[in-house]
Recover the amino acids of this structure.
């Protein structure tokens, strides 16, 4: 059993399995396709209405970064349905890919949850001009407990071998590493930035990160955010990029990274900002702490249900679900035009 952080989360809710998350794909993903969908409605009381005899009023149609699938579809969405008269539908994918689908009119969610503000900036000001950050998550390296490198990876996870050995193993010709698409997914960007931070902070030879990663969209490594950990569990990969809550929720062994590398500590934001990444479209991404942001989308159906969902997420009950699933709750961080935040959401935050 892992020590330290594993024991810290040993009281996480039971029953988090892949079976409860619907529509997970295990194919590689280099497009903007939304990868998953889950629908929940309030229970019927036998007379065609929801429990208590009140019919459902609207649909909270939530698009989210794929790493949030389990917490949203398994816990937050169903709890929202029980405490409101609305239904819930969730769909996930790489956050930049989802944002581009919203921009293109291909999907019309009334809520968007993103990792970082980059994808939300793509929607401003037409679709939204505000967002609230409420939780963070460090990057970890999840690994297969039955793969050919499992014993060595476990020794690194337990602190019996130095962290530098992880990057040495990743250079082995037979080592199968998984990461997500940096052009559509913030996790894919964070992983590459982490690799370059590690090269510098661990004093590895120049070019080590590029040797491990290959090309930006290396088809041997890049998979959809929703499918990558399924591949790892199927023993198709030796190790993969993951956020800490994902590894915990899926009961995967993982190697913790120090704050200087994991992009999970806001106190180290200046260090993270010292690394940059150029995407295929020529845009430059600057390293930043991994933070979850939520916003409602303008001009979409059932906008009140969407705002009610944001209220619920930012309530004590909603935030507790994220905490229980391994996320670190942070002080609320406003991005954009704070005066545009709906009054009900501002009241929830103030409360």
């Amino acid at each position: 059993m892992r020590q330290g952080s594993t024991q810290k989360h040993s009281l996480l809710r039971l029953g988090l399995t892949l079976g409860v998350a619907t529509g997970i794909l295990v194919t590689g993903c280099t497009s903007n396709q939304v990868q998953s969908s889950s629908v929940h409605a309030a229970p019927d009381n036998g007379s065609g209405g929801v429990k208590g005899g009140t019919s459902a009023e609207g649909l909270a149609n939530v698009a989210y970064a794929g790493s949030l699938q389990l917490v949203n579809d398994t816990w937050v969405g169903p709890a929202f349905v029980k405490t409101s008269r609305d239904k819930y539908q969730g769909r996930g994918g790489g956050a930049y890919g989802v944002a581009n689908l919203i921009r293109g009119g291909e999907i019309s969610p009334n809520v968007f949850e993103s990792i970082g503000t980059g994808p939300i900036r793509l929607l401003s000001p037409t679709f939204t001009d505000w967002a609230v950050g409420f939780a963070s998550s460090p990057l970890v390296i999840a690994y297969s407990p039955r793969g050919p490198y499992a014993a060595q990876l476990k020794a690194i996870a337990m602190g019996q071998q130095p962290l530098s050995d992880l990057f040495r193993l990743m250079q082995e010709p037979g080592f199968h590493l998984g990461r997500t698409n940096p052009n559509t997914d913030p996790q894919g960007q964070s992983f590459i930035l982490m690799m370059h931070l590690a090269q510098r902070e661990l004093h590895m030879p120049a070019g080590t990160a590029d040797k491990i990663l290959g090309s930006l969209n290396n088809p041997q490594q890049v998979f959809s955010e929703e499918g990558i950990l399924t591949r790892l569990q199927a023993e198709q990969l030796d190790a993969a990029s993951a956020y800490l809550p994902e590894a915990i929720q899926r009961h995967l062994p993982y190697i913790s990274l120090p704050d200087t590398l994991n992009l999970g500590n806001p106190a180290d934001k200046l260090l993270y900002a010292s690394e940059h990444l150029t995407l295929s479209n020529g845009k430059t991404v600057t390293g930043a702490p991994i933070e979850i942001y939520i916003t409602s989308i303008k001009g979409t159906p059932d906008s009140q249900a969407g705002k009610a969902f944001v209220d619920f997420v930012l309530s004590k009950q909603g935030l507790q679900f994220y905490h229980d699933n391994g996320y670190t709750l942070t002080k609320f961080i406003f991005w954009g035009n704070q005066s545009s935040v709906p009054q009900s959401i501002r009241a929830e935050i103030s409360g």
